[in-house]
Amino acid sequence: MVRVKVKYLAAISDYTGVPEEEIEVGDGVTLADLLNRIRELHPDLAKFEDRFSILVLVNGVNRGLNYKLMDGDRVALLPPVSGG
Amino acid sequence: MVEGRVIENDIDLNKIVDHLARHAHEGMGAIVIFIGFVKGDIDGKKVSRLDYSVYEPYTSKKLEEIASEEMEEGIYDIKIFHKYGNLDVGDKTLYIIVGAKGRKKGFEKAIKVLERVKFEPPIFKLEHREDGEYWVFGDGTRLKRESRDVR
């Protein structure tokens, strides 16, 4: 099994109800699979995704949805940014 | 020295400018400074506070990356400092300092850096105003927190 830490940043945490959590997935699971699991755990997230894009980073890097998760990976879901 | 990072407290601008001028490249003739601060009115609604959250160390890394990437001929230094935390109206939010050959190059570069800072680093803004709390996104779109309706 693979354990990953998932962080929900800013507006996204309003829809997940938690700022972060640890999720256990099977070996060989991709980032796309994890996102589907997150959507099952937090159905309200769809309301955000209907209107805004979410950027997903693994250990701070945009690796694409086919990335195979490794034990200890830190995944972050980011809403659109707003500097300045 | 090119620099980009998040900060919790205001910087000593005089100290930075003095240091920059005294150690300037011989070809440098201008320092352009942009300071952003929290404004008290948005679309006629009174603003009481802005909460800035960041995703470290990646926010600082991206700010540093922008500063490095924007260096070019005629630009001798770029510094970007972005505040985080709960900021009141009138509090400073962002400093961009550009050391350049001349004023035109300096102003143009400061504008370009500012546009990148608005859209690239993971910085998130929650606006507290008299009609509720709004998440603000880079293109100016606002999402009301309580009702989750887009304004």
Query: Which class best fits the helix and strand makeup of chain A?
Result: alpha+beta
Secondary structure: number of strands of chain B: 10
CATH class of chain A: Alpha Beta
Describe the largest sheet of chain B: 6 strands, antiparallel
Strand % of chain B is 35-45%
Q: Per DSSP, what share of the residues of chain A sits in E-state strands of 2 or more residues? A: 25-35%
- Rounded to the nearest angstrom, the distance between the terminal CA atoms of chain B is 42 Å
At the fold tier of CATH, the topology name of chain A is Ubiquitin-like (UB roll)
Helical element count of chain A?
Answer: 3
Provide the low-confidence segments of chain B as ranges: none
Q: Helix count of chain B, per DSSP?
A: 3
Plain-language structure description:
The complex is a heterodimer of chains A (84) and B (151). Chain A is α+β, with helices and mostly antiparallel strands and 84 residues long. Chain A has a single domain, classed as Ubiquitin-like (UB roll), CATH 3.10.20.30. Chain A is built from three helices and four strands; from the N terminus they run βαβααββ. Chain A has helices at residues 11-16, 31-41, 45-49, and strands at residues 2-8, 20-25, 55-58, 74-78. Chain A has a four-stranded mixed β-sheet. The mean pLDDT of chain A is 95. Chain B has a single domain (3-144), classed as Aldehyde Oxidoreductase, domain 3. Chain B is 26% helix and 41% strand. In chain B, a hairpin with a 2-residue loop joins β8 and β9. Chain B has helices at 13-22, 58-69, 103-119, and strands at 3-7, 30-37, 41-42, 45-54, 75-83, 85-88, 92-100, 123-129, 132-136, 142-144. In chain B, the strands form two sheets. In chain B, strands 3, 4, 6, 8, 9 and 10 form a six-stranded antiparallel β-sheet that branches. Chain B has a four-stranded mixed β-sheet with strand order 1-5-7-2, sandwiched between helices. Chain B is an alpha+beta fold. Chains A and B meet through α1 of A and α3 and β8 of B.
